Records
---
Amino acid sequence: MTVSEGHGPVVGFVGGGQLARMCALAAAPMGIRVMVLAASSDEGTSEVTPNVIIGDADDPVALRAFAEQVDVLTIDHENVDHSTFADLEAAGVAVRPGVGALRFSDKAYQRVEFAAAGLPVPDFVVVDAGAADTAAVINEFAQRHGGRVVLKASRGGYDGRGVWILDAADVPGFLAGYEGAPLVVEPLLPLDREVAVLVARRPSGEIAVWPVVETVQVDGMCDEVLAGGNAGGTVLDPDLEAEALRVGAKVAEVTGIVGVLAIELFVVNGSVVINEIAPRVHNSGHLTIEGSETSQFEQHLRAIVDWPLGPTALMAPFVVMRNVVGGAAGDPRDRQAAAFSMVPEAHIHLYGKTSRPARKVGHVTVLGDDLEQCRERAQLAADLLAGDRFADAMEDSHDNREQSNE
Amino acid sequence: MTVSEGHGPVVGFVGGGQLARMCALAAAPMGIRVMVLAASSDEGTSEVTPNVIIGDADDPVALRAFAEQVDVLTIDHENVDHSTFADLEAAGVAVRPGVGALRFSDKAYQRVEFAAAGLPVPDFVVVDAGAADTAAVINEFAQRHGGRVVLKASRGGYDGRGVWILDAADVPGFLAGYEGAPLVVEPLLPLDREVAVLVARRPSGEIAVWPVVETVQVDGMCDEVLAGGNAGGTVLDPDLEAEALRVGAKVAEVTGIVGVLAIELFVVNGSVVINEIAPRVHNSGHLTIEGSETSQFEQHLRAIVDWPLGPTALMAPFVVMRNVVGGAAGDPRDRQAAAFSMVPEAHIHLYGKTSRPARKVGHVTVLGDDLEQCRERAQLAADLLAGDRFADAMEDSHDNREQSNE
């Protein structure tokens, strides 16, 4: 940590998407300098910092050269080469999250380790798609769980990709066409709802946890996040919230994360089971920018440069975030006036990304005293930004709240 | 407004200091692109946007070339060449604030126009330092106001510079050594306190006004700003607040400002009189970043690109801002951990400027339920960032709350 002397710490992001972008916006006021190793110049961070280097993060030489310019190395996304990161860590680079925590991005590894640590995970089995007995193993599992299974690629999936819900009879056909990482086989759970816990952890083990949020998924992609409920309408049962927070803190400890960690949980028959984790800032925490005393982006930076963490209480009784997803109707960067005219209190966050169907290009946050009103206002603002055709499409699909596995 | 089509509006700042920097940080999430014409590359904005052009804003050719790249031209500071701005405005460039509002930066012009509009201003007379009868005019004014006068250079002063408090007997000697703009002569008023009103105004005349804040000056420089008091301990008398808001709205109308305007007011015998105005975002509004539903920086941008304005209510019962002023003890960018360790709830804002004695290099904001506790916490965080020697110096000078004219 000698790069920074006299000018505040320098944090290097591998990847230049919206997560690095929102971290960069949180870093500047605190006197943290951000550098970015981006795959291309049109990633969102190039609008908010001049320190974007175009390079291939999987190239050990490029990554090492980048690491030499920073005090702390962190990630915009977890699709990074673990062996390169491990080499850097062994050479003394402050890699945060460390490789030990990054390994939990592998769903097979994660399920095995969490089960061993006594954490609540769904029943599961890990299979190699190419092994001779795989179809039989999955079939046996399916018969014990109502005749259907959820298959998850252990690596490389996101936003609903890499997840398949299949009848037992369709498994052999699927396997014949599948090439890729080992599969985690799980039951199709009857979900009450989905929630998420965000935890920040310093190298010392000090943690900060935000209030639990409810996440609403559409087509396997997070669409809406709800926080609040201490007074008036309740978002979450207090016992359930306490259990979710306990699981979140335990996951932070088991993974040894340094930085922010998101834990997505299924609520099944009133109890929580772990769906997924992300060893980084996360869509479920975007509402903390205005909605919490300390945003996930500021907190991540404070954790990885080893500064004391901030308080996490909500700034309003209820906070609702809604994603802005690209549609066929043009670019949200031409529609802010329309959104503000109907929802002047909306906090608009656009990511500097070209709008494409099903691509997250921004989000909107609304704070207030009434949950349903916050939801309506946030939806209205997001729909106005996304354009009408997307709004119509959303209305059609929105009642579908089956298990969606993001 | 054709530069931006498909990518959101482009706003050009003349000047690249902390006000442009904080605007740039507010612009990115809303999908507004910021460009900066800065005098040198070490101004604060170059850390937060790649679009910094180094050039002389007083050079009409450079300014016109810059203006051609943006949809709206605005300012980081009001020390700009009015005739060049007038030429641009005449050529159809959206200059915001317009030249009509910029003229009110001249204190002589401002006093005359405000008095004519029936706005509350101190008794005053404008003199030309070189005229034969100037000493006699000032002496006559002084005799009517207790034997002392406040002299203000009509142009070029800031942070207490360009303001002199003199006994009548010392005026001739002062005038002999003075060269510069005409002087505004005013009485030394017995101040109850100083307050400020921030107003944002769109081209249509639509305005938004924030709750009135109290400002605490030290050595002619704003040191602390207090907001809040609706419940519990009162910062401001409700009648006084209503009067201040009325004056703020009227000043916005009289000046024809487009963007944010700050009005600094003296409270004398329970009534407000106008001290100064600034046709831009202002130190007294920095606490709106976390302390208000819409920050002054976001609101300024919304006003100048002609988007609907946001709500301005406070986010907590009390909000306190304290400036971080450079001292002899090093750079605040090495001291964030110390500040967060004692005041984890502090919102730290550093400006990317080299620390020098008496230079504002950042500010700290604290929200809470108790005014005195917020003040103590904000002071502690600011002192820790500024370094101990500055903290000691502040303690010595802090009870001095005479008229300070910033």
---
Amino acid sequence: MAENRYKVVFLPHDRVVEVAEGDTLIKAAMDAGVHINASCGGEGVCGKCRVIIETGEVEDGVNERLSAEDIEKGVRLACRARVKDDVVVRVPVESSISDKSALDIQRVPRRTAKIMQIDLEQLKEQGLFIPPVEKKFLELPPPDAGDNVPDVTRMVNVLRLKHDEHRLEFLLPVIRKIPDVIREQDFKVTVTMVRPVREDGKTQIVNVQAGDTTAMNYAIAVDIGTTTVYGELVDLVTGEVLARDGDFNAQISYGEDVITRIVQAEKPGGLKKLHDLVVGTINRIIGNLVKRSGVDTDDISTITLAGNTTMTQLFLEINPRYIRRSPYVPASTFYPPIRAADIDIDLDEHVIALVYPQISSYVGGDIVAGVMGSGMYRSDELTLFIDIGTNAEIVIGNKDWMVCAACSAGPAFEGGGITFGMRAAKGAIEDFSIDPVTFEPMIITHGNSRPVGICGSGLIIMVAMLFEAGVIDSNGKFNRELDTPRIRETDGVYEYVVVWKENTAIDRDIVLTEIDIDNLIRAKGAIYSGCMTLLDEVGLGIDQLDRIILSGGFGSYIDLEKAMIIGLLPEIDPEKVSFIGNGSLMGARMSALTNRIRRDVGQVVQKMTNFELSETSSYMDHYMAALFIPHTDLNLFPSVRDRMKARRKAAV
Amino acid sequence: MAENRYKVVFLPHDRVVEVAEGDTLIKAAMDAGVHINASCGGEGVCGKCRVIIETGEVEDGVNERLSAEDIEKGVRLACRARVKDDVVVRVPVESSISDKSALDIQRVPRRTAKIMQIDLEQLKEQGLFIPPVEKKFLELPPPDAGDNVPDVTRMVNVLRLKHDEHRLEFLLPVIRKIPDVIREQDFKVTVTMVRPVREDGKTQIVNVQAGDTTAMNYAIAVDIGTTTVYGELVDLVTGEVLARDGDFNAQISYGEDVITRIVQAEKPGGLKKLHDLVVGTINRIIGNLVKRSGVDTDDISTITLAGNTTMTQLFLEINPRYIRRSPYVPASTFYPPIRAADIDIDLDEHVIALVYPQISSYVGGDIVAGVMGSGMYRSDELTLFIDIGTNAEIVIGNKDWMVCAACSAGPAFEGGGITFGMRAAKGAIEDFSIDPVTFEPMIITHGNSRPVGICGSGLIIMVAMLFEAGVIDSNGKFNRELDTPRIRETDGVYEYVVVWKENTAIDRDIVLTEIDIDNLIRAKGAIYSGCMTLLDEVGLGIDQLDRIILSGGFGSYIDLEKAMIIGLLPEIDPEKVSFIGNGSLMGARMSALTNRIRRDVGQVVQKMTNFELSETSSYMDHYMAALFIPHTDLNLFPSVRDRMKARRKAAV
């Protein structure tokens, strides 16, 4: 069922915004670009966000901060009041400290990328919905004295003559099953066939089942993340996902990042241990998927997996030591199909594991999976594919060519190196607006609870809004001349107080320092200059990009306009940005649905040129140029440039 | 060094024969067709085989049976005296009871088939000496900042550009080794490659070793026999066999024949048990081969195996129950290459096991191996390939077509069903001659020791000689009119006393009964009629055979002329008969030496037509016609026919 949406009119600004049922008025105001002082994250403790409901009804918004008289008059706390009707809301003077607010900041609703998913219908239309593992039902003529060819020959004959299947190879485990299984239901059997990568390759017969089981054919798709492992159980007949599960990668107790894991793997027994841990996690997830979906494991025909280079090597028990040592060499790009049981996966003997190939030590199978799953590799459009995390991986190209690189952005987007940085958990400030006159903030926290810190996406919004309001300059320095107690110098470092101590959950002022801003600028500069370097190397400009695909958990939270204001993403029509979520998992599922992926991925990997940015001479120049908000070259950000001009003009 | 050969002249017959140094005079006499009464098997106990050395010297031949005067005169016991010089020997009247002996029986030396072996030089000349597993030495450019492609890609690039190797597949175990191994000797490595069966298939890289190890590349070839398992360690660089070993198949404690093994395999846990037993035997043999040859197991690249259908299925742990049940269906003809470790073979992880395909339940991989190893499948000549045992397998054809069948000959050739039948062990009568006047026998036993019984090859000679001497007729019945105490009736059955009790090691008369002869006739009839049926089915006659290849242990002992006299083998120039010994082992070694075998065997198996004799209507007629000595149709045996005519004429 589609969610109900309602209109909210803010007076005296006369701003109209449409929001979902259940959204708070503070969120509606944030989206409408209407400033309301709101400092406590939405818990109703500060009582400053009073608004008056003129027409329509809201839910809640009443607490002990309001008198009976207030309530009678229609006063509500905007941070608690939830929309359930079209409403007209008046923002009183004391809530909207400056009535210029709404006029100055052309706040547009926080705008995240549109979601791109696997389109099964399209896949079917394009004839691509041909899984690498298929089942076929065979009716064999029973043997008699005049026809006693071997059982396998009997099957081969029917496959050849009645099903036009040639170049077949029967694996030993299935040969072992054949004599008894084919006699179970009067020589009526279903075979499971693994298609070759190349059309002239051999089709492997990996399983045989009595009777007709063609309606039951399943795959497991797995993303092996450094932090988290996700799995899906995919119905290969319908293409649908029947169950999903995720869990922390049990390797996490051996370090949070890939480098620490590699160090651990180099210790005696370490590689085996880390292999066992991640396989344990995968097996737990498989167990849950099987339980939830209720499928018979004998009908699970394949498992497809994608992970970054280190995760893939640890999973396959391949020493990753040279990944972290100059010149950073991974063991392999491609891995052959592997019997799942050979790598300790708890699936039946016949299950073949297909593992995504790698490009380089730091552009791994997760990125390749995203490129394949998103269909970028089949598109005419010049696409920037980007997965933002501690390491950001960038791929630029289209169906004809691709270049890629990994940039070390540092942990700023995950809250690392930021004084009050945190992950997007309860109490994380995830939205922010500022009154351009009073410089008072308006915040929304994750879970509408008392502020604890600032998450990556909140940080981007905060820096963008502070920049647009002239509170910080292009260098990320605070305007020392502004008249507000929120900007202050502590131990020689300028900072902005986002939330006063009494409104936080941590009994300390939550601040944003110039060091924090500098870290953010370095992080976004690394990514942007990575894109610039890649484009530069192929002789293109950033204005030639047709679209951006964001992958990874962080991408879903990014406010696109704000990311473009700070110069994290190239300025582009936000309509041309899409988000694929877990691209690695998407690619794993995609390769379970269409065997074409396995064929195409070989070409993609071969055609993709990897750049080691540290070895690319132009990178440092691009990086230095990107250490500004948004960039030293404002022509790359025309909208920001135009608004800055307008602001300077207004200030004159 | 070639063995020394000497001339022996027998007087008064004036017969000359050339024998090897160390041969006894009794053997020389047997070969010369000179009859000497010799009843004790050559132990010197009966003292009847006295001869006089006229010129030259012999070794031994003196015991307490001879007086000092005898010795002084040059008298020696022919069964003990060994040739070490050209000698002239006089046979006294008391030793040669009838001086007509030598004139009547045109005894020719026991003539076994010439030995056919793998001709390495020819194989090299024909460009066939290309093992399925090759090693190549690679010098990789070390990675640097400007060239940090993955290790496997680095190897692929060198293999492609410098060695023209394409379509490569790296298996996971070798990928695991690569990162460390290539760095061990400065990026100089040797790869082990398994060639594809089809030229357009993939070459698998299965091992990588530091430095140049191309000079060390070995294979193990194994014949999995029902009774005995034989192994060879083959040098794939020179083609030579470096070590040989054999042992009883440990399954033998679960029954001597394949049917009993199948019955055992059908019991709970039986299949696993039998698999473990034969693998245990193979592993012991491998251990011995490695120890004897002193090779490094890391340099053993492949193991090739051949066995009959039941042995192959038990080895691969495939339920053989349908082999022994009508309509006698084996699981498969072909088996894919299998990792040796997957079937519990004690060889390194990279070793691939290649298993010979089967034709039918009773024409197995051992026969296919013989056909391939002997080169029969590449020959223009119409060849009869035959492996005689309890089951005799017959293949007829040439490079264009082949037909095959298995016939149940029964155990007569292995001594089964024969009153005094035994295997070719110590004391087995293995050669026999008869005085056509006195009907006294002359025997030679295995090991020149006191007679214990009659082995299969001895039985054939005995029946042939008795037939030629007119002691038995075409029906295998004794001539009741002959005046000799050696033919007698016991409990209603006629028999011939081969050795009187006092000269045996068993304190009983060793006899040959009409029932024994009948069993032999049935056995040889089954085989001969099998050949006839196959030829009949393809519209050819037995006179069109160009040659015969004998395979199997029994074949080496067969006296070709005698086998043709009794009608076991078609009458053909003995020069055209060759013996390949253990054809199964020969084929296993051959497929280790030349990958062409693997390619060709597919076509051979597909083109070979298997006949179930019991389902072939003409078989019973052929069988009935073959239950005579040599056959009801004497025109099939012209030499025998002519001698019979001459004999009848002489008798008139």
---
Amino acid sequence: MTIRTLVWSENVHERTNAEVARLYPQGMHATIAAALNADPGIAAGTATLQDPEHGLTEARLAATDVLVWWGHAAHGEVADAVVERVVRAVWSGMGLIALHSAHFSKVFLRLMGTPCNLSWREAGERERVWVTAPHHPIAAGLPAFFELEHEEMYGEPFGVPEPLETVFVSWFQGGEVFRSGLTYRRGAGNIFYFRPGHETYPTYHDATVQQVLRNAVRWAANPAPRLADPQAAPNVPVEAAPERIEARGASLHAPGREGFR
Amino acid sequence: MTIRTLVWSENVHERTNAEVARLYPQGMHATIAAALNADPGIAAGTATLQDPEHGLTEARLAATDVLVWWGHAAHGEVADAVVERVVRAVWSGMGLIALHSAHFSKVFLRLMGTPCNLSWREAGERERVWVTAPHHPIAAGLPAFFELEHEEMYGEPFGVPEPLETVFVSWFQGGEVFRSGLTYRRGAGNIFYFRPGHETYPTYHDATVQQVLRNAVRWAANPAPRLADPQAAPNVPVEAAPERIEARGASLHAPGREGFR
Amino acid sequence: MTIRTLVWSENVHERTNAEVARLYPQGMHATIAAALNADPGIAAGTATLQDPEHGLTEARLAATDVLVWWGHAAHGEVADAVVERVVRAVWSGMGLIALHSAHFSKVFLRLMGTPCNLSWREAGERERVWVTAPHHPIAAGLPAFFELEHEEMYGEPFGVPEPLETVFVSWFQGGEVFRSGLTYRRGAGNIFYFRPGHETYPTYHDATVQQVLRNAVRWAANPAPRLADPQAAPNVPVEAAPERIEARGASLHAPGREGFR
Amino acid sequence: MTIRTLVWSENVHERTNAEVARLYPQGMHATIAAALNADPGIAAGTATLQDPEHGLTEARLAATDVLVWWGHAAHGEVADAVVERVVRAVWSGMGLIALHSAHFSKVFLRLMGTPCNLSWREAGERERVWVTAPHHPIAAGLPAFFELEHEEMYGEPFGVPEPLETVFVSWFQGGEVFRSGLTYRRGAGNIFYFRPGHETYPTYHDATVQQVLRNAVRWAANPAPRLADPQAAPNVPVEAAPERIEARGASLHAPGREGFR
């Protein structure tokens, strides 16, 4: 079963910065989608901030198994209604891969519930990504480490919740470290944060990075049917209780009423 | 060092429902605060939805080590600005105890990043709370289980992230189970969710429940100084890198500029 | 790719207790293996305590993707050398499903590092297993809960490490609760503990239990090649360091020597 | 209440290697104990491999709140009976701080249930330890990072279970990274693994390392009474069930009999 994947990018610096345009002439989303489509089990399309509703309509999300998100300069321009829509899609079972500066995207912040902050330096230094969980599907087929000769530095502490598993930890030439691959679940949705990918470097052209992305999409895809209402809080009437009981004592809710929200 | 604790309640049903008023004539917050103040190491005050800014001004939060939150019918009336203020206080190091129907409070939803849903039944049935982590400070001095003869049922699945630790699991007479005590960290703030406490039953008058609340406040208090900016994302200039490096390659950021948010 | 599965059982009470023999005339392992073989992607065989080397030779383990373990009365008769062999196979990537009273098996104790204790009662009471992680692959296709009319009770606290995820929690008629489905990783091996399965009841004939077992085998199978030495601790000589460094200061180890164990 | 702490060391290289003897003339245990005793809330003594029963009698362990363990060359000489005794003490509530090469000690291996392997290099290179969980009590009062100019390198992957929390991650001059501070619970015992401390370098004379050790002892101390039998698995007779039930169906156990182990 093909994994329907949507690569979303804000697509800003590709149009305003000469170096980024040179590296990613069709946009970072196009490069990433092409890398994903090298896996016959993945069918990746793209959407950008500039599309109507940022290309993230209810219909599009409903037909997306895994969403890949790259944003940096324009987090604030993403409409709150779209953010809520994406969050609910994740809760309903859509996977999410948050890339690099997406740590400060509205979508990731909403799903983590934490500050998501870090330290940073843009110096084109060397990053070496170490696999800390070699058994993990996202690390399948990878070497013990891989290097990116030029990357932005992200340093600890990274203000995220303790992950389910730490898959990668990065070493930086300038002396910092960073937990670069982290897994989470939010509702029925699998989430993977992956650090590399500063737009002024050719990171998404790197073959190992592309393998990580394909692995991550496969890991994040949830084959179960999407939940119709991920926040349903059903009342179980006394007569439907699994064990026979009788109602006792005072009550706030008239029979059949919905709960408070 | 005394733990400065603030017990917040929406204080609605105490004023509109005769049974709730009978059980908690001064409000649930008053009963809970009195229970906490039985511990000489805790100094608990109260605030309610009806206070100006819901009693949750910046100054008040800055002077609060642990916030206890009870809400149910009026989640929607809590001002979003106050919610953000509370979330940032937690990130900065304030502890949070979320009680019962606070599972659907804006504050808890924001900090969890998940649906926080569950099934429920208001039938005054018996709840038996089992200690699953007897080593945990929140279980200190507790028996293997304790019973609440009349409680609202909350049933699994509970739509929260995997906790750091599961401290309690509840058995319900009608046949359901629920993870009733869960710990989290969000930024520098410790969070404990505790299930019992439906307003039409005398739960917060129960001696064991009161012990849990005192234990939880002690566990949640973070003695470290409050963070000034919990979401700071400092740039580390090349010349301040721990290891000597030289800037290479293209760059988006002029020296000294702040990062994007 | 077919998942090569081995169902191991001590096969004691099937031969000494009339009721167990009636329920499982070919042994519990045969019933479980048949249930697994209903999945065309699984090829399940069996082995028992009475086989030479308990049927768990190096060759057999090397050809096993997932091992299912049921033991109860004869934990002490399992040879320590075989236990170590199984533990190393798990570390190397073999999945393990520990069933019911396997909580006190040598293999499970070794892999958990904890007491693995619990309370228990053999009264043929009703157990209701609730799904707490409906998104999890092990819960795929399951209803919200399923009932076993007659089961042994296991009660909290269950002396295990915090799991990666809690998939099931059980309700018992007599008033207890238990975390009945827990996931772990140990080295490259995926481990699932599943509570139901007392030998005097027809639990493994239950269709939903059988579905859980099939799901668990699929989840536990690790498609990566088995590790040759799961405890390898390689020395990285100075000249092979990823970054160029020079050896400095005192040293314990002559060049090329192995580390201490 | 004073935390009774016991610093255990194998005390081998201090007596056989001139450089180690120069750095730690009274043994590493003496230096570590002195550092702990600088905290008025800690009373630290010492024991070594050469003491009768390695200085770890039942009585000594019963009077120990936190055990600090350093071993390297002589793991194999630690008697298995003593290892089991220590493991049971941890399960009963004794804290354990495992230092550096204790990753391969019998005690730590038993408690983790994993390979505990890593890569290594003895080149006196620089290690920079980053705080990844600044809110954690073990990081109290620490700077964002601290440096050890000469240390042995330990590299990922580190073959341990996912921790409760990752407190430190190390950067190495030669290009590797390592999760250097990890927390676990095993039974009622709190466990902290701390990486630094190769015997040919003055690591335990470092003021920040000493602060980490004091913080860790305070964190690991469990004020609850020690469990008499950490592996007790009590039978709950039908007549003692919290809810009234009647025994039904077949049974293996005669009334009052103990369970199988």
---
Amino acid sequence: MDITKFVENSLGQWRSQRSSHNLALTYFEQVTSTIDIVPLAKDDSKVIDLCKSNEIDPQMVSHPFRMSWEGESDWDEGETFEGTTILVPVPEPDNPQAGRLLRDQGYAETIPAIGKYHFSEDGTFVLLTAYDRAAAEEKIWFVNPNLRMRVSLIKTSGGSGVLTASFSSEIRS
Amino acid sequence: MDITKFVENSLGQWRSQRSSHNLALTYFEQVTSTIDIVPLAKDDSKVIDLCKSNEIDPQMVSHPFRMSWEGESDWDEGETFEGTTILVPVPEPDNPQAGRLLRDQGYAETIPAIGKYHFSEDGTFVLLTAYDRAAAEEKIWFVNPNLRMRVSLIKTSGGSGVLTASFSSEIRS
């Protein structure tokens, strides 16, 4: 697995069920959402801007994409939320299995972030992102071409404590 | 990672949050439970019996254990459930990273089962179990010594369709 194939497999519309576990308080949250993943051109101005603000040569970018979501949580009955983010993979020049992922906003905090990704032997995409006051570890893998699994951990910035563990099942619409 | 270290790391009492996703109907189920994992002797009569009924030489067994659980689901407010099962790993003689796992009853169906396990490069325990009318795929990994993650898929017996995906966060008590 490499980032080209992973992004291509991810394109499209997905119906997502997400469960979050607050580990300290044993709280559950349930979220249903629709996720759209669409490719962007390497010379899209937003991609270029994100490269510039991270001092990355736009020539090094591979398969940038936009992810948008719209859904609702059982914590806010009747209320919907939505969001969108641009993601720009920057593979290592000498290792197609690993690289950096630029985002114009993160999940855990609504600020830009640079994560480090790699693919494990079994094809799982593993993304580590350090924020100011927290760190996120995300694993994404395909069970089949129409079913994607995602496990996300939000840790304290030192990485010792896990605050939240969440799990998404994403079915291609 | 091998089965010796994995079982030793798993011994103790765990507080579990489990979320199940019914993928066809977009249902959620939330379960909280306490799980106890205790070692058994290789010459425990129940271990010997399970070997005999599976025509396994008891000398090939490594680190058998009992897993018990007690909890409640948000589908049955106020009702508790409990259960116990004996698990007997049988590593391959020439490959400590893989083997079979005997159980006197399964999760998906309350009948005895033999699963096949292996450890992936990153230390994840992967267990595949075929039942008469379904197949289960389970991944278990440690985030740290006191936090275990478990993702379970229940598939149609042909393996093509995934019926249920569930996720457990298990914290050492």
